[in-house]
Design brief:
Helices cover 41% and strands 23% of the residues. The protein has helices at 26-35, 59-70, 74-82, 85-92, and strands spanning 5-11, 17-23, 49-56.
Length: 96
């Protein structure tokens, strides 16, 4: 039985965003980022703050969402964080 998974965005001390995914307890993963257990990008940018998350039934879906979000620019991520779906849609339109 799967317990579900999350894709999440953290705001780092320097104002940058970190996108990740995890199975199970999201609060535990954020704590790992903040205590340095999770190393990597956030280790030198602590503390971090959880500013967006979305739950998925399957980890594969959370990982797919993480990959998609990592390809987005800051403005598009900010629109998602703010729940501004109109701006998100506008930013998603292909320029041509």
């Amino acid at each position: 039985m799967e317990i579900g998974a999350y894709v999440y965005i953290l705001r780092c001390r320097n104002g940058s965003y970190y996108v990740g995914s995890t199975r199970g307890a999201l609060e535990k993963r954020v704590a790992e980022h903040n205590d340095g257990t999770h190393g990597g990008y956030t280790a030198s940018r602590r503390p971090v703050e959880l500013i967006f998350h979305e739950h998925f039934d399957r980890i594969t879906d959370a990982i797919a969402a993480e990959r998609r979000l990592k390809g987005w620019g800051r403005a598009k991520k900010q629109a998602l964080i703010n729940g501004d779906m109109a701006l998100l849609q506008a930013l998603s339109q292909r320029k041509g």
